[in-house]
Amino acid sequence: MLAGVAFILLWQRQAFHHLLHLRTYQLPLPSAIVDAIRENAELLASYARYTLTEAVFGMLLGSALGFALALIATAWPKWGSGGIILVAAFNAVPIVALAPIMNLWFGDGMGSRIAIVAATTMAAMAINAHKGMTSIDPLALDLMRAYAASKLQVFRYLRIAGSLPYVFTALKINATAGMIGAIVGEFFFSSRGLGYLMSNSIKVAKMPLGWACIVVAAVLGVIFYLLIELLERLFIRWHPSGRV
């Protein structure tokens, strides 16, 4: 907390401007950013809701697809392992390359940004969930077999339950990746959203408003992350990481 306060004070006193040889129009002061947030609060709130909707729906869709792929790869390793590799390779494609393709497929509405976010969040869930489902304790598996558990019961109560810590790790990664995907997608084809407002503000040299978009996006990302962390504590209290 003290380090954060000191950082903002140094920024306000233009210490970073002198260090990096920047003008205040290149790096607005925190006071100017706060003024921009206050003066454009209604616009920022409206565009933030739009961007957050894209990020949430895209993340949920991408995470669901990734989890389904992990299930297939675990149940049928011979067929599913190749899918994990393909998703990992697809994740290496830059967002700036995906944006025009998704816009061509899904139009210039919200659907294209949801598709971009889904594509960028699918791999993290697929890889993490698959790791969790295949990294089970051999003793636990022997115990389930000793109790004559069926394959479906082993899958449900051991593999899926054991993968939950990995799933929530992937969701935390996707919480920030989803915001990045939505904002970058709005740079190219959008008439609303924080990315659109940020891009237009920088083009017309309204740097305080552009930085206000960055601050709002960062706050949304932190809240999104903390919400997932809260859900993690509620759903996996049995895990050693959730014990006090």
From TrEMBL:
Domain ABC transmembrane type-1: 48-232
Membrane-topology descriptor: Multi-pass membrane protein
Protein name: ABC transporter permease
Domain of life: Bacteria
Cellular compartment(s): Cell membrane
Pfam families named among the record's database cross-references: BPD_transp_1 (PF00528)
Protein family (similarity comment): Belongs to the binding-protein-dependent transport system permease family.
Transmembrane residue ranges: 55-76, 83-106, 112-129, 166-189, 209-228
Classification via SUPFAM superfamilies: MetI-like
Keyword field: Cell membrane, Membrane, Transmembrane, Transmembrane helix, Transport
